[in-house]
Amino acid sequence: MNCCESLFSFSSLQEGPFVYLSFVGNVADSEGLIASLWKEYGKADARWLYFDPTIVSLEILTVVLDGSLALVLIYAIVKEKYYRHFIQITLCVCELYGGWMTFFPDWLMGSPNLNTDSWLYFGVYLVFFNSVWVLIPGLLLWQSWVELKKMFYKGTSSGKKFQ
Question: Which parts pass through the membrane (predicted)?
Answer without folding.
Answer: 55-78, 85-104, 119-142
